Amino acid sequence: MTYVVTDNCIACKYTDCVSVCPVDCFYEGENMLVIDPVECIDCGVCEPECPADAIRADTEPDMEKWVTFNAKYAALWPVITEAKEPMADADSLDGTPGKLDTHFSETPAAPAL
């Protein structure tokens, strides 16, 4: 079992989950996070920390596509190990349906200054 980030993270990017992860398996894109399913130790501490309810166990229905999605972008994006402020419109976009098609960016997060 592993945990994965789903589309409700898109355009929100709350990072509460990052600060509790004991193995630093979160990776950061321009407007969302993903979990490396190989690095995840299935501890589950990140799931209740997500204000957007975007983290799911891969054992839930229809999660295989998200395992593949998370693995793909974890290989392309930089690791994130410290929490930061959410995106400016996070609260208003939380729960918006269809964000994968309308808001997702494949661009990695900008390097920290």
Secondary-structure map:
Blueprint: E1 3-5, H1 16-20, E2 26-28, E3 33-35, E4 55-57, H2 64-74, H3 90-93, H4 99-102
Antiparallel strand pairs: 1-4, 2-3
Counting DSSP H or I runs of 4 or more residues, the number of helices is 4
Multimeric status of the protein = single chain
Extended strand count: 4
Instruction: State mean pLDDT (0 to 100 scale).
Output: 96
Largest sheet geometry: 2 strands, antiparallel
Distance between the terminal alpha carbons, to the nearest Å? Answer: 35 Å
Radius of gyration: 12 Å
Function: Ferredoxins are iron-sulfur proteins that transfer electrons in a wide variety of metabolic reactions.
InterPro entries: 4Fe4S_Fe-S-bd, 4Fe4S_Fe_S_CS, 7Fe_ferredoxin, Fd_C, FdxA, RnfB_subfamily
Cofactor: [4Fe-4S] cluster; [3Fe-4S] cluster
Protein name: Ferredoxin
Q: In short, what is this structure?
A:
With 113 residues, the protein is an alpha+beta fold. It contains four helices and four strands.
